[in-house]
Design brief:
Number of helices of chain B: 12
Structural class of chain A: alpha/beta
Order of helices and strands of chain A: HEEHEEHEEEHEEEHEHE
Structural class of chain B: mainly alpha
Helix content of chain B: over 70%
Radius of gyration of chain B: 31 Å
Helix content of chain A: 25-40%
Shape of chain B: elongated
Number of helices of chain A: 6
Radius of gyration of chain A: 25 Å
Strand order of the largest sheet of chain A: 5-6-4-7-8-9-10-12
Strand content of chain B: under 5%
Number of strands of chain A: 12
Oligomer: heterodimer
Distance between the termini of chain A: 64 Å
Shape of chain A: globular
Largest interface: A-B, 58 and 72 residues
């Protein structure tokens, strides 16, 4: 951006361009917050999706604070499956895909939005796919899967952990009953830090 | 009258005439060098002239000095240009003060205001170059220069305009290195200063809201695999404070210009980050309606 410098001529009516330049600077709107616009529908940028960032961090911590009773689940990769919610998937890949849970390297999978899901250690089912949850829970593959959700009454549909909002922050509630059904032992820390525990 | 006395009077008259001629000669020579484009030579002579007690109150010599320094300023850069401009301004102002007959005011006043405006331009230039300290110094001098000539000068509009631009520069500097909270703090106080002058300034409301919002988002972006659950909760609480600070400013900007998409997106983002899905959805729909209307208009 170049400033106009008026020739130093005496007696002429000068209109330095200061205002224009300043307005140009000031009008550089701080579009950092603006989500990417796609076809008129808001498509939030992954790095601005605060909820996805927080959920991903919770999921990783949850993975560290539970134990799978089934021996088969303690071998091979530690699979985190994500239905829908592209930003959560991207965040998990970006920050956690190179990590391990115990000796099991994390593998993050984006799953098609159907009831037929891969066998996962953790499966995230977002609100837009809530209708799929009962069907998923009936699948043999869902045995020993810790289902995490983000919608009301999800615990009554079989989710072990459900993200909830409390005082404008994201917290979680946990069902020890559902965890037990899935052959999962919930650590004390995870229980104590939950906003609500269903026993 | 004795011969001795007559001789004294004649001698005195001769000395005074010679002196007056020498002074006029100094001014004339300075003027001639100026016209020839020998600014350095003109400067030496005019500086001698103003140092002369007999010429120190002459508006003519100060006007000439003002113009010589003003033209020298044209080819100078940096601090040298600033010094030359200051001298030019001071000379032109002195010319106006001494010009009781108003002979030179017509040429010195426009030149004075012209130079003052170049300081404003240079302040803007310094902002372009992300040099806020220099920009502030120049802008302050610009204000002082205007008030010196006209003490009743009101610069509120300029203050607002400059403040908004300065705030944007601070935000840019902060964005380059977010650990430098000094820039963040300065951006906040600059926008607040603008809002103290004009609480309904759309840009300052929007930019301050955005600054707070982005600070909250950045705080969350810093979450890594090393964060445990208590720290995630603490981070959220800190970010919540920033989102809460952002909300009233973004709301105000939105109410001022309800059709502006950036504020609608801003409110959508703030509510989303405050985990207020209902409000977030409300603004999302509002935005989509505006998009729909835009498309309809384009199709027609």
């Amino acid at each position: 951006m170049k400033i106009r410098f008026y020739p130093l001529t005496v007696g002429r009516d000068v209109h330095p361009g200061g205002r224009t330049v300043l307005w140009r600077i000031a009008s550089v709107l701080l579009l950092l917050l603006a989500p990417v616009l796609f076809g008129g529908v808001i498509q939030r940028e992954p790095d601005k999706d605060t909820t996805a960032i927080i959920q991903a961090s919770y999921i990783y911590n949850i993975a560290k604070l539970v134990e799978w009773r089934e021996p088969a689940m303690r071998k091979g990769p530690f699979v985190i499956g994500v239905l829908g919610s592209g930003n959560l998937y991207q965040e998990l890949v970006k920050k956690y895909a190179t990590r391990s849970i115990g000796k099991q390297p994390i593998e993050v999978r984006k799953l098609p939005e159907t009831q037929e899901v891969d066998r996962c250690h953790i499966l995230f089912v977002p609100e837009e796919d809530r209708a799929l949850l009962p069907g998923i829970m009936k699948q043999a593959n869902a045995r020993s899967t810790l289902v995490i959700t983000d919608f009301p009454d999800a615990l009554s549909s079989g989710a072990v952990v459900n993200f909830i909002t409390a005082k404008n922050t994201l917290k979680y509630e946990i069902s020890l009953v559902n965890a037990d059904k899935q052959n999962i032992d919930v650590g004390l820390t995870l229980k104590q830090l939950a906003d609500r525990v269903v026993e | 009258m004795t011969m001795k006395r007559v001789f004294s009077i004649l001698l005195c008259t001769l000395v005074l005439t010679t002196l007056a001629m020498a002074q006029a000669d100094l001014l004339g020579k300075a003027n001639q060098k100026y016209r020839e484009g020998d600014l350095k030579g003109a400067r030496i002579l005019v500086d001698k002239a103003v140092a002369d007690q007999a010429l120190a109150r002459s508006p003519e010599v100060w006007v000439l000095r003002g113009f010589i320094y003003k033209d020298m300023c044209k080819d100078a850069t940096g601090e040298e240009a600033d010094v030359l401009r200051d001298e030019a301004l001071a000379s032109l102002y002195t010319a106006v003060l001494n010009d009781s007959a108003k002979e030179y005011t017509q040429s010195s006043v426009p030149a004075y205001y012209y130079l003052a405006k170049t300081m404003y331009n240079d302040a803007a230039h310094a902002l372009n170059d992300l040099e806020p300290v220099r920009a502030i110094a120049l802008f302050d001098k610009y204000g002082e220069a205007l008030r010196r000539m006209a003490p009743d000068t009101v610069l509120t509009d300029r203050d607002i305009e400059f403040g908004n631009a300065l705030g944007t520069v601070y935000v840019k500097l902060y964005t380059q290195d977010r650990k430098q909270l000094e820039w963040y703090d300065k951006a906040v106080s600059t926008y607040k200063h603008v809002l103290a002058l004009d609480s309904s300034n759309y840009g300052a409301n929007y930019n301050l809201a955005t600054l707070y919002y982005n600070r909250g988002v950045y705080n969350i972006q810093l979450i890594t695999a090393d964060n445990d659950i208590p720290s995630i909760q603490q981070i959220q609480e800190v970010s919540r404070e920033f989102f809460t600070l952002a909300l009233p400013y973004m709301l105000k900007a939105h109410r001022m210009r309800p059709d502006r998409k950036e504020t609608i997106l801003g409110l959508e983002g703030i509510h989303y980050s405050l985990q207020d899905e209902e409000q977030s959805r409300h603004y999302r729909h509002l935005y989509e309606e505006l998009q729909h209307d835009d498309r309809k208009e384009k199709d027609q």
